[in-house]
Amino acid sequence: MAETKKYTGGCHCGRFTFEVDTDLGTAISCNCSICTKRGLLLTFATPEQFALKKGQQDELKKYQFNKKVIDHLFCPDCGVEAFGTGKTPDGKTMFAINVRCLEGVDLAALQPRPVDGRSF
Ligand SMILES: [Zn+2]
């Protein structure tokens, strides 16, 4: 059952922090080229479920590749990608949150669903 909880998270150096309501039961581990290299575990949130508490989104460095539909955002100081943002096929903004950047999450207890992003 979908059950969202509130988490706080941020980059490594603390320049950017955020709060997010998300369901870690929907976390994914993706095999696309960037998720592989970054070791990303992702969970998703709508703009209503996500709030940047510290830092400005336009101060983050942006990286795009492939179809350039996802903004991979990372802290210019510590280099950590705590979240990214993109649009769903129907044009809605979504945030992809790096589960490894959330506080108080038992990563070993998660069972992220494998997603074949490499083939997208
Ligand atoms: Zn940082």
Automatic annotation (TrEMBL):
<dbReference type="GO" id="GO:0046872">
    <property type="term" value="F:metal ion binding"/>
</dbReference>
<keyword id="KW-0862">Zinc</keyword>
<dbReference type="InterPro" id="IPR011057">
    <property type="entry name" value="Mss4-like_sf"/>
</dbReference>
<dbReference type="GO" id="GO:0016846">
    <property type="term" value="F:carbon-sulfur lyase activity"/>
</dbReference>
<keyword id="KW-0479">Metal-binding</keyword>
<protein>
    <submittedName>
        <fullName>Gfa-like protein</fullName>
    </submittedName>
</protein>
<feature type="domain" description="CENP-V/GFA">
    <location>
        <begin position="7"/>
        <end position="120"/>
    </location>
</feature>
<comment type="similarity">
    <text>Belongs to the Gfa family.</text>
</comment>
<dbReference type="Pfam" id="PF04828">
    <property type="entry name" value="GFA"/>
</dbReference>
<dbReference type="InterPro" id="IPR006913">
    <property type="entry name" value="CENP-V/GFA"/>
</dbReference>
<dbReference type="InterPro" id="IPR052355">
    <property type="entry name" value="CENP-V-like"/>
</dbReference>
